[in-house]
Amino acid sequence: MESETEGEYKMKKFLALLLALMMVFALAACGEEPAPSTESAAPSGAADPAGEETPAGETGSDLAYVQEKGTLVVGITNFDPMDYQDENGEWVGFDADMAKAFAESLGVEVQFQEIEWDSKIMELDGKTIDVVWNGMTLTDDVLSAMECSNAYCNNAQVVVLPAGAAEQYPDAASMAELNFAVESGSAGEDMAIENGFAYTPVVDQATAVLEVSSGTCDAAIIDSLMAAAMVGEGTNYADLTYTISLNSEEYGVGFRKGSDLCEALNEFIAEAYADGTMQEIAETYGVTAALIPQE
């Protein structure tokens, strides 16, 4: 018969062996790779194993994103003759009508949203709007921050003055003591800065004209296309006129940087110019002379 000491020794040896085996099994279980799931999704913006794309909006395609949600949200300001409301409250104008036609070509509804002009890039990048389409001057800042369409209209920044005072200010140098109203974040503001003018920033160009009419500012700097439609004989501001041009510029449409909607618009504009649609809309709003031929 074994002694008690020998029995204890064998029992301890057995328990140590059992503990070692348990540790081996535990480590093996921790190191196992989970079986691949047949339901796992492809990475955002990539194709799944069957070659199908992930839902629109996750692919990086603005075109797919707009078509999936069914609306093209157009950022605008009140800017006759490009974007303004008619007597029924509907947004009309050269840019508005072109935006409607473009949305229709994409198979989506158009939605116009008024924005603060100096917040346009933030609105675009934040996806509260899909496009800025509002007689936008293609400045260096705009070109660097947005994906911009081909230029479609010529324009200039002009000075709006009371008609009775216009002859006193034949050039920019003579206007050095005037206080100008300009749309905040606009090409008009750029011209005020470039010429060293004192100026008051306002919400839009229509308000800039109102400031001159009410006498709270001496003059305004606005787009020539707007000036032609808004001031002078036959308008609501018959006592105002526009005089010198401070520059020459071109209009374009802005999308998020890298957006594939931009190329879709360039193709649409070229087709609209070729079939006469663009010229017909331009004639409606008196901007035919400003059109830039499209190829």
Write a brief caption for the model.
The chain is of the alpha/beta class. The protein has 10 helices and 13 strands.
At the fold tier of CATH, the topology name of the largest domain is D-Maltodextrin-Binding Protein, domain 2
Structural class: alpha/beta
Query: Biggest sheet: strands, sense, closure?
Result: 6 strands, mixed
Give the helices and strands as they follow along the chain. Answer: HHEEEHEHEHEEEEHEHEHEEHH
The percentage of residues in β strands lies in 15-25%
Counted by DSSP, the helix tally is 10
Low-pLDDT residue intervals, each spanning 5 or more residues: 32-57
The outline comes out as globular
The rounded Rg comes to 32 Å
Calculate the terminal CA-CA distance, rounded to whole Å.
Answer: 108 Å
What does this structure look like?
- Helix content is 36%, strand content 21%.
- The protein has two domains: 134 residues, 3-Layer(aba) Sandwich (D-Maltodextrin-Binding Protein, domain 2), CATH 3.40.190; 91 residues, D-Maltodextrin-Binding Protein, domain 2 (3-Layer(aba) Sandwich).
- α6 links the parallel β9 and β10.
- The strands form three sheets. Strands 1, 4, 5, 6, 7 and 13 form a six-stranded mixed β-sheet that branches.
- With 295 residues, the protein is α/β, with parallel strands linked by helices.
- The chain is built from ten helices and 13 strands.
